[in-house]
Amino acid sequence: MDPVFVLATALIAVVAAAAAAWVLSRHGRPRADDAAHARAQAQALAGLAEAQSHLSGRLAAMADAQAKREAELTRTLNTRLDQVSQRLGDSLDDNTKKTGETLTQLHTRLALIDEAQKKIGELSGQMVGLQDILANKQARGAFGEIQLKDLVTAALPPSAYGFQTTLSNGCRADCLLQLPNPPGAIAVDAKFPLEPYRALIDAKTEDAKKQAMRLFRDAMRKHVDDIAAKYIIPGETADSALMFLPSEAVYAELHTNFPATVEASFKAHVWIVSPTTLMATLNTVRAVLKDAQMREQAHLIQAEVEKLLADVIRLDDKVSKLGRHFGHAQEDVRLIGVSTDKIAKRGERIVDMEIGEADMDTLAPPEPRHDLVTGD
């Protein structure tokens, strides 16, 4: 119930109680004029009743207005709640749809990440296997030889190289490039000092790095000297040899931080190559082999050119004779044309002649003419 209505009802009850009390108090005391007093009381009670009726009407009107306002407010609240519910439902549907799409994309990406993780795991296993290979000297040598073999066989013909070739001093070269003299056969060694390089990479302190650099430099120079002593044989091989480093990182480290070692290898006629520079060297070797083959075949090419020139001379003589024959034939054709014109003219004169029968009996046969053939 509305609080205003309750307050008004309580006020009316209080006023009625006060009026009743006042009437009772007035009856309890003696009055001089009871009739006048009774009329006054009656008028007062009538006024109170009228005021109570008026107040009751006002309160009823207020209650009705309050009920209407409450009904309108209820309808407004219901409408707003329906709109809010609709918007909330639409928003929830959109959020649910977007969340589903996001979860689908997330699932796809997680699948890709899982696949990438598997590939990374496989690659890690392969790297561990490669590290194990490179840690073993024999396995490392085999790894370098296989890479060297792949590069050489891809760039040169089979007649231009040999693997594990034993030289006259008993040393066996990993690869021997068969080049003509000069320069001669070039030996290629595929082994390289990896342990000092790994110690250089793994060095944590400055002192450890300096010591690793010194060990790497000494190992490289010793390897250069060994190659020069084993694979450079005067009269049998070229005056230089190749050191193949199957790692671009080692090659870059050597040329970046050890220029003195590279210069020492130049002086020893040992050329240090990586997979990239070896491929360029092999392309140069292929060009040299092709040029040498052209020089070897030069005399054959010259003999063939001489034969071709003789054939051209004979062909020119035959063409000249054929031209003379064409000239005679053309002259004969011209003479035949002259004779044909004469015959035609004589035939026309005969047609134009008017000869009688008597004249035909006395007409002697014409003598044979020999100019039909000679043209005279």
List keywords for this structure.
376 residues, alpha/beta, five-stranded mixed β-sheet, disordered C terminus
- The shape, in one word, is elongated
Strand % is 5-15%
Number of helices in the DSSP assignment? 11
Roughly how many Å is the radius of gyration? Answer: 65 Å
The succession of helices and strands, N to C, reads: HHHEEEHHEHHEHHHH
For the secondary structure, the number of strands is: 5
**Rounded mean pLDDT score:** 77
Strand order of the largest sheet: 1-2-3-4-5
Q: Distance between the terminal alpha carbons, to the nearest Å?
A: 160 Å
Quick one: biggest sheet? 5 strands, mixed
Low-confidence stretches: 28-32, 370-376
Secondary-structure content class: alpha/beta
Share of residues in helices: over 70%
Draw up the topology in text.
Elements: H1 3-28, H2 34-135, H3 137-155, E1 161-166, E2 172-177, E3 186-189, H4 194-202, H5 206-231, E4 241-244, H6 248-257, H7 259-267, E5 270-273, H8 275-296, H9 298-352, H10 357-362, H11 371-374
Parallel strand pairs: 3-4, 4-5
Antiparallel strand pairs: 1-2, 2-3
Helix pairs in contact: 1-2, 3-8, 4-5
